[in-house]
Design brief:
Distance between the termini: 40 Å
Number of helices: 18
Order of helices and strands: HHHHHHHHHHHHHHHHHH
Number of domains: 2
Helix content: over 70%
Largest sheet: none
Amino acid sequence: MTLPVVLVGVVLVAMSISGTAVALPSIGRDLDTSGSPLNWVVAGYNLAFAAMTLIAGSTADRIGRRRVFVLSSLVFAAGFLGTALSPVIAVADIARIVSGAGGAGIMAAGGAILASSYDGAARNRAFALMGTMAGVGIAIGPTLSGLLISATGWRGGFAVFTVIGLLVALGGTRTRESRATSADRTDWAGSVLFVAALTLLMFALLEAPALGWAHPVILFTGIAGLVILVVFGFVQRHSTAPMLAPALVANRGFLGWSLATLTTSIGFLGVLVFLPTYLQAAAGLSPAAAGATMLLLTAPVLITPMAAVALVNKGVPARPLIMVALLLVVAGNLWLVTLNADAAVMSAAAPLVLIGIGMGVSFGITDGQAMALVDADAVGMAAGFLNTLRGAAEALVIAAYSASLVGLLSVRLDDASRAAKVGAGRLTDGTEAAELDAFTWSWQVTQLGVGLLCLVLSIVVAVLIHNRAAASRRTT
């Protein structure tokens, strides 16, 4: 039961990310909210996911990977039940944070279970299947959520995840238990510092458009988050049982592959989360139609992970393959600068396919390549680190993307409240044309920034993995 149970859990977590984006306009109308409170529905999930994944990975090594997987599945299901029953946006935000914590445990413990159960080519295939199933979840999430919203409302969609989460927890009890041979105490100081730093940075990014970047609260939380992050690094270097071993970060090859997965996540998630709202507001698509359009982005992720790992197992070097994937993600994001309201689907089609292919290749090979550079006793920590990078990138991308869209809309419309509503897809009668022009412009500028950031990170990845390869040749 090990492989199928873990893969179903991965699908569930991936669907919960991509599907929620399609539901945002419906949630905003039903709960009469927009701006940062609405964005916390997605951002809160990703914040909790990022903050708890590394903790879950290290904890799984210590107390048991199966135990953490089962408990996390139960927490995940409870959070979705709370979201489905939410009477106000604050309850929905809190419930989504709970679900994110559960999703972190599912991914980190699930990855550690696979790493401890398989070796060599079998491990590569297992992680490629994990990437493929994550792609399946991302691919069908928007479409399934759109159909469910059209048929039963957004609450019905969240209720479905509750039931599936309980089934995953039940299946998890049939997997084999494993843990590290030298389990140490939990690094609670490091855990608290990491969660605090990420939370403060997320809060500053999400609330800045409403309060202003120079507001004392924003300045304080942003600076405090950075300071606490530095303290976290210091504590990890001097801890006897760090949640993130300095040796893991010092491994240039592992760090390079980790940054590769971070880069593709940055280039993928902003489009995944915010494009459905634009399609519904600008092109007038229904939730179901917007979800179907997102298949252009997500469908390639169904195919390319297994194709990429098959090439690697046949002897194709993984390094040039990941560089091609990164270039596709960069090109797709820069191409989306041409997005326009008159032909939203047509102008987005080719860029979405490029980004989807790049993301799929990354899904297929980055985890297997990175985990091959890690000692057996640290696989839980390493899996947690990889998923923490993804989660942190996703959380910060959502916050930064939202801040950029709303901030640019505020400049163009000269009204922060109105900008928040437009960013949520709620246009004002009589001024739709002007608001759509502002929405499109803010989208184009934001995409330019994302594309350039991915380009810079891709160059860093190329340097890191090249240096690792050169060092290996000198040793040989």
